[in-house]
UniProtKB/TrEMBL annotation:
Name by which UniProt lists this protein: AIR synthase related protein
Pfam families (UniProt xref): AIRS (PF00586), AIRS_C (PF02769)
Domain PurM-like C-terminal: 193-295
InterPro entries, alphabetized: PurM-like_C_dom, PurM-like_C_sf, PurM-like_N, PurM-like_N_sf, ThiL-like, UCP036540_AIR
SUPFAM superfamilies tied to this protein: PurM C-terminal domain-like, PurM N-terminal domain-like
Length: 315
């Protein structure tokens, strides 16, 4: 039992030094600009019978340094995740691309072209810097949801179950082992997976939700709980885990399709996710403790104490 406790503390120490989590601390610098939408995957406004959802993302330079094609592809994918995480469907995107040379520019474009074709999104405007000092790509995206059917990050309630849903039918990217690529499927299959969040939103089955970001599953749960002013626990033994991927690597992984949600209707939510082709499990629960604890069998340790620290860098 003592060995398990030691392993748990080692996992926590390693994740606290993980760039995917450390880099989230800078988000707090912009809290005053995003106001009511701070901590959300996207912003939105009401228009007639719909909610118009807007988001934006930039791709980390280390991804582009490793694989320009993948950088272009995921510049679309990460925005698609943000739109679906809110219970909306993506419609169109704009971009800003900078490249050192034309060869790099075309490779980024190739990735973006394949992604928009696969996910059915249209790029309607862009800007190109063809002689930049480094390669970069930033994308903004717009989506549509039914009026009053938005999933926010800040609605988790004490007593809720925390569910993780992931597409495990893939493998780590050959050059970026913390990117789990499950996109080698027909577009209609991938869209059907993502549509699980739209169904959950329209049936009002979840209180909060987020797409699993580059902070990993636990970092994403931490963001959801802190945004909600709650605490809770995650049982590491209950996480959906692909074969042949070590646990610590998986805890740092950005999956090509993955969500965490907080719900008082776990059976119905699990059914929706599974019907959409995702591996879904109850991985923990929400409480009023203001701390996120990790469990491994009988052992437990604090991962984040939101009374003293903030994943967003607010304390």
């Amino acid at each position: 039992m003592e060995d398990n406790k030691t392993d748990l503390l080692q996992i926590i120490d390693e994740l606290k030094d993980f760039p995917g989590i450390i880099r989230k601390r800078h988000a707090g610098l912009f809290r005053d600009l995003t106001s009511d939408f701070f901590g959300e995957d996207a912003g939105y406004f009401e228009l007639g019978d719909y909610e118009v959802v807007i988001t934006a993302d930039g791709i980390w330079h280390r991804v582009l340094e490793a694989d320009l094609y993948w950088g272009g592809f995921v510049s679309i994918l990460v925005n698609i995740h943000d739109i679906y995480a809110m219970g909306a469907r993506p419609v169109m995107a704009v971009n800003v691309v900078s490249a050192r040379d034309e060869k790099s520019l075309l490779e980024i474009k190739r990735g973006m072209r394949d992604a928009v074709k696969k996910f059915g999104v249209k790029i309607v405007k862009g800007h190109v810097h063809p002689d930049a000092s480094q390669n970069s790509v930033d994308v903004a995206m717009l989506g549509i949801a039914k009026k009053g059917r938005i999933i926010r990050s800040n609605g988790a309630r004490a007593g809720d179950c925390i569910i993780a849903a992931v597409d495990l039918e893939g493998s780590p990217h050959r050059l970026l082992p913390l990117n789990f690529d499950s996109t080698n499927k027909p577009g209609e299959v991938l869209i059907h997976q993502l549509d699980s969040m739209v169904e959950l939103a329209e049936k009002q089955l979840v209180n909060a939700g987020k797409d699993i970001s580059n902070a990993g599953i636990l970092g994403t749960v931490a963001m959801m709980l802190e945004s909600s002013g709650k605490g809770g626990y995650v049982d590491l033994r209950r996480l959906p885990l692909p074969e042949n991927v070590p646990l610590i690597q998986w805890l740092k992984t950005y999956p090509a399709c993955g969500f965490v949600v907080s719900t008082g209707n776990p059976d119905r939510v699990l059914e929706v996710f599974r019907n959409h082709g995702l591996c879904a499990e109850v991985i923990g629960g929400v409480d009023n403790s203001n701390e996120l604890r990790l469990r491994d069998e009988m052992d437990e340790a604090i991962f984040f104490d939101f009374r003293k620290e903030s994943i967003f860098g607010l304390k």
